[in-house]
Amino acid sequence: MCCNPSVIYSGFCQVILTGVITFCSVGFFNALQGLGGAGNADPSANNAANASLYLTFAITGYLGGAFFNLLGPRVLMSVGCMTFAFYALAAYLAGQDDALQWLFILSGVVLGVGAGWLWTAQGALMLAYAPQDRKGLYISVFWIIFNLGGVIGGLLAFALNFDSSEDEPTSANAASYFSFVGIMLFGAIVAFFGLVSPEKVVREDGLPVTVQPCLSPAKEFLGALSVSVDKNMLLLSLLFFSSNYFYTYIFNAFNGVLFTVRTRGLNSAIFWLSQIVGAWLLGLVLDASRLKVRSRSRNGFWFTTIATTLSFLLGGYVQYFYQGGYRRDDDNRDLIDVTNGDYWLPCLTIIGYGIMATCVQVYSYWLLGILGSGDATLAARYSGFYKGMQSLGATLGWVLDLEAFGISYRAQFLVCWILISVALVPTSFVSGAAPASWLRLDDTTGVGLRRRSGSVCDTPTTASDDMTQSQSSVS
């Protein structure tokens, strides 16, 4: 157990703790967003807050590697959790009094800073602590724990709002909000007392965790910015940008407008549960012990591509043809409830979206982990760049959903599908799926990649490396 003083310093235990921390903070934030409009009756009420959130998140996340080296993961994750609690409280207060909308927008800015810190630290620890041939396992374990927050939060909202009728305003009740606030604050406590310094962590493969000496703040920020010229990051940037862009459509233009409030809570739980299943399945693909890294990377790429295509095909049918399709200006539609006989098709669509979303993000993390090679500082910079680009995409998604623009739901759907489909093309060159790519075996272990001068090196594996690799499995 992680509470054992000798075990708490293991890399796997620390990854589990980061999962618990994000379970309490981001997981329940996701459950709140999954209700549509942060639980408010008007899904557009939180768009300004979320636009400010993700814009600030993009800046803070992009520079997150510098904050990681300057402040350490304990500070970044504990403070980050507290900003999530502030956001949930502000969302409730703004829903009660329109005069407090400014507080909600301010909470978005504050959360943007905290989320950038938390996600940078989380990504750095998860990628640096995972052995090369078990990164899929570590990432999927984290993703499962983290998304349990969304599952439980969605079920909690479903239970607390179960008696809401279809004719009542579809806003979540006070108990939902304050339950979320308390759980988020508990995450801050776990982060402060549970996380240890990376240099004290013992990896499963016995290799030390590399932590570069802390430089001056100016040099740290320059170091964080330097990854923007890495050719792998440039090719992956569109994938990172699109990896959260579609959340606005799923939460606001799909779940937020088609369903009753209790069904929105249930859908939220199903969405995050689907992410758990998707993460587990993709983890098995990425850690297939008898395959070389290039083959695992290629299989992971095609798994992600197929999941993305199938989910948007199903989503397109619901958007355009289910019950005649639906539009943004259709205020007279009958809300779908879990008791409806034809609820199964929208439910299946939510499942598809959940699997697609987790595949895109887990695969992104796996590529970053392979490229980071156990260096906590480099992993923090990669993770910060990833979250920064991801947040820019999310910002654009929230901004375009503002009523001032009036962009139709059908147009939003098409942009989501086209964006992620185009992003997979340059990703194929990094992953090894394209004929002309530069994914190569690690020259020390034979089961991973090493970043060297912005690229990776090609060296054959040894017999002992192959034996070690074949004995590894996902459990």
UniProtKB/TrEMBL annotation:
Residues 452-475 are annotated as: Disordered. InterPro entries: MFS, MFS_trans_sf, UNC-93-like_regulator. One of its GO terms (molecular function) is transmembrane transporter activity. The chain crosses the membrane at residues 7-31, 51-68, 75-94, 100-120, 141-162, 174-196, 233-250, 270-289, 301-323, 343-368, 413-434. Its main location: membrane. Keywords: Membrane, Transmembrane, Transmembrane helix. Gene3D superfamilies: MFS general substrate transporter like domains. Residues 456-475 have a biased composition (Polar residues). GO terms for cellular component: membrane. It is a multi-pass membrane protein. This is DUF895 domain membrane protein. The lineage of its organism: Eukaryota, Sar, Alveolata, Perkinsozoa, Perkinsea.
